[in-house]
Specification:
This protein has about 375 residues and is α/β, with parallel strands linked by helices. Helices cover about 40% and strands about 20% of the residues. The chain contains twelve helices and 15 strands. Strands 2-1-3-4-5-14-13 form a seven-stranded mixed sheet, sandwiched between helices. Strands 7-6-8-9 form a four-stranded parallel sheet, with helices on both faces. Strand 11 and strand 12 form a beta hairpin. Helix 4 runs parallel beside helix 5 (about 140-145), helix 6 (about 170-185) crosses helix 7 (about 205-220) and helix 8 crosses helix 9 (about 260-275). The chain starts with a helix and ends with a helix. It binds alpha-L-rhamnopyranose.
Length: about 375
């Protein structure tokens, strides 16, 4: 309970800081949700062996008139996905519906297709998916849509033909700008840097990487920075560790690694700190996993990093699913709906020609706030 209060206070603080958090956040930041989500240690342990189905709200809640809302994460064993699932379940419980949480065995499109086909057979009302591949889920999701299931993506988008709308954590360019500016700042404006990403097909990471490259190319300010490699750790701790070690070995002059994945950044932080490396790190990380690595001195590998609230992202995915199922929204630009106590959201045009709903702006975590946030997620 105490932690829920702390969480609520911090979310108000985050809402205020969002407006100045990372550059030009203000125009895209709807008020951040009132955080009531459980802190990390209260998150339900999701089973690594999924896709076996799990979780359902109590029968009486479902009987109260709610639908059956499915969330398909990128893969099992990723704490970010577990936070999203927690938020999704909370919102579905608020709605009086039934939540089905599925964490595929591996971060692949094939594993997600198997899960989606099983959800179609079960006759769920909606599927909200964090996609491992933008295009490869299309046939399965079209089949779902043809069966009357409302489909949206969250976190990592599917293509326009496969979804009604996308629940995005923050604007793509905004995230790219935060990360590029961090690389510029931490390198001192010159030298070699590398990216440690998730899978090579991940739509969200690929969009952020593309954005970073475009930002670097468009401004001579970044001309003395050399991006030497984009490595892929597949959101697996061991592969991310191996890829970090390979980067250190192959580029002795490397100054900064930017990992736009919570799994990658945590693995890289451990490698750098354990080795006492002078290479610095930034990217997107979970405060609870990264607190021990964040600091301004030589003993810490990461001066600062960014993220958003993954629990709220899951909650917004659930409220969006429910609004699609009830017909309150169709996924069209300009549609508006109320996401429970998170407040009002509007569907806007997305960069790929489809539509999206933006949760907020990226938030910066540094030595001044990491101790508080590590308790929340
Ligand atoms: C990883 C996943 C997820 C991404 C975060 C930042 O956990 O790849 O999709 O949004 O990092």
């Amino acid at each position: 309970m105490k932690k829920k209060v702390l969480s609520a206070i911090l979310s108000v603080a985050m809402a205020a800081t969002l407006l100045v958090g990372c550059g030009s956040a203000a125009e895209e930041a709807p008020a951040a949700a009132t955080e009531e989500a459980a802190p990390a240690e209260e998150a339900p342990a999701e089973e690594a062996e999924a896709p076996a189905e799990e979780e359902a709200a109590p029968a009486e809640e479902a009987a109260a008139g709610g639908g059956t809302y499915a969330f398909v994460s990128k893969s099992a064993g990723n704490p970010f996905n577990e936070r999203q699932a927690t938020g999704f379940e909370e919102a579905v419980a608020d709605l009086g519906g039934t939540a089905i949480i599925q964490h595929p065995e591996a971060p692949t499109a094939d594993a997600q297709i198997t899960v989606i086909q099983s959800l179609i057979s079960q006759g769920v009302d909606s599927i909200c998916v964090a996609a491992n591949d933008e295009n490869a889920l299309q046939a399965a999701l079209e089949e779902a849509a043809a069966a009357g299931i409302k489909v949206c993506s969250v976190d990592s988008t599917v293509n326009v033909a496969s979804r009604l709308t996308h629940v995005n954590q923050a604007g793509v360019t905004e995230i790219g700008q935060c990360l590029m500016d961090a690389v510029y700042d931490i390198t001192g404006g010159e030298g070699q840097w590398a990216i440690l990403s998730a899978t090579s097909q991940a739509a969200n990471q690929n969009a952020w990487i593309e954005s970073m490259k475009e930002i670097q190319a468009a401004d001579s300010k970044y001309a003395n920075l050399e991006l030497v490699e984009v490595a892929y750790g597949d959101d697996e701790p061991q592969k991310s560790t191996d890829q970090t070690q390979a980067l250190l070995q192959n580029y002795p002059d490397l100054k900064v690694i930017c990992a736009p994945t919570t799994v990658g950044i945590a693995a890289a932080a451990k490698v750098l700190q354990d080795q006492g490396s002078s290479v610095k790190l930034t990217g997107l990380g979970l405060p609870s996993e990264m607190a021990e690595y964040i600091g301004d001195d030589d003993a810490h590998s990461c001066p600062y990093m960014f993220l958003w609230n993954p629990i709220d992202l899951g909650r917004l995915g659930a409220y969006t699913s429910a609004a699609l199922v009830s017909g309150e929204i169709t996924g069209a630009e300009g549609d508006k709906f109320t996401a429970g106590d998170m407040g009002d959201y509007e569907i806007v045009k997305a960069g790929d020609g489809g539509t999206e709903i933006i949760l907020g702006a990226p938030f910066k975590f540094d030595p001044s706030n990491i101790e508080e946030w590590k308790e929340v997620y």
